[in-house]
Amino acid sequence: MVERRSITQFARNGLADWLWQRVSALLLAAYTIFVVAYVALHWPLSYSVWHGLFAGTWFKVCTLFAVLSLLVHSWIGLWTVMTDYVKPYALRLLLHVLLLGVLLLYLIWVCAILYAVN
Amino acid sequence: MDQSRPVFLNLLQMKFPVTAISSILHRLSGLFLFVFLPCILYFWQHSLVAGRDQHFAYHLTAWGHLVLWLWLSSLLYHLLAGVRHMIMDLGFAEELVVARRVATATIILAVLCSIVIGIVIW
User: Fold this and answer.
1) Whole-angstrom Cα distance, residue A70 to residue A21?
2) Core vs surface per residue A46-84: b (16+ CB within 10 A) or e
């Protein structure tokens, strides 16, 4: 579709990035609103209620789904910010690679946290 | 391109419309959310440790409360400004007067809700 394209942006073109950003935003908003509503409805929150939320398999699945959405959303957002402000190519590429590493570490960390909840 | 053209980048001397403030706050809140995400993951992890029988926020230090409050407020602002983005994607609120009102409303709403969040956390 284009002759030269960035190898670090998330999707094949800016329009696809735009769509992924909105989709991931809606998913993250849905997850956030759910958690806020759950906490509000069970206020004052006890440990067993909070722990019980994350003990269910279904909610663990939703949480990981939200984390994957967060990875996509923050990659696109931070890629945009770095492309705006970090002009030297080598430095920006290094930052992109570090960003990717950090995001993947968060994913694994969340998996580890959820695995420990029973 | 003529490299000797004058450049004016003194942010402190520029006058910014409310829509510009709303937009940069969206970017800044996104950055803040990313930078402090590991703190929040750490709090979340420790809130699920077995044996705690109280509201997990009781175990946070004063700095922990501050970080949590700022993070949740940033999240709320980022979410509301994101909704504003998508309203504009749909074609609404693109005219000047309406856009300014929507931007102001977003900021005011976020400030009010962040006060609520602060009360709830403490």
Assistant:
1) 10
2) ebeebbebbeeeebbebbeebbebbbbbbbbbbbbebee
Structure tokens at B2: 């003529």
* First and final C-alpha spacing in chain A: 48
- Residue B44 to residue A45, Cβ atoms within 8 A: no
Residue A89 has pLDDT above 70, yes or no: yes
- The helix (H) or strand (E) run that includes residue A59 is helix A57-85
Q: Inspect the interface and report whether the beta carbons of A109 and B41 lie closer than 8 Å.
A: yes
Instruction: Answer yes or no: do A81 and B38 touch at CB < 8 A.
Output: no
- Cβ atoms within 10 A of the Cβ of A35, count? 15
Q: Is the dihedral of CA B68, B69, B71, B76 positive or negative?
A: positive
Within 8 A by CB and 6+ apart from B102, the residues are: B84, B87, B93
**What interface predicted TM-score (ipTM) does this complex get?**
0.90
Question: In whole angstroms, what is the distance from residue A98 CA to residue A104 CA?
Answer: 10
State the pLDDT at residue B75: 93
Least Cα distance to A71 among B69, B86, B58, B34 occurs for: B34
**What angle in degrees, to the nearest 10, is found between the helix axes of B62-89 and A14-41?**
130
Token match 């609520």: residue? Answer: B116
- Cα–Cα distance for residue pair A93/B20, rounded to 1 Å: 29
Neighboring chain B residues of A110 at a CB cutoff of 8 Å: 41
DSSP class of A91: H
Q: Please tell me the predicted confidence (pLDDT) of residue B3.
A: 74
Stated pTM of the model: 0.87
Identify the closest residue of chain A to B41 by CA–CA distance.
A110
Give me the count of residues in chain A: 118
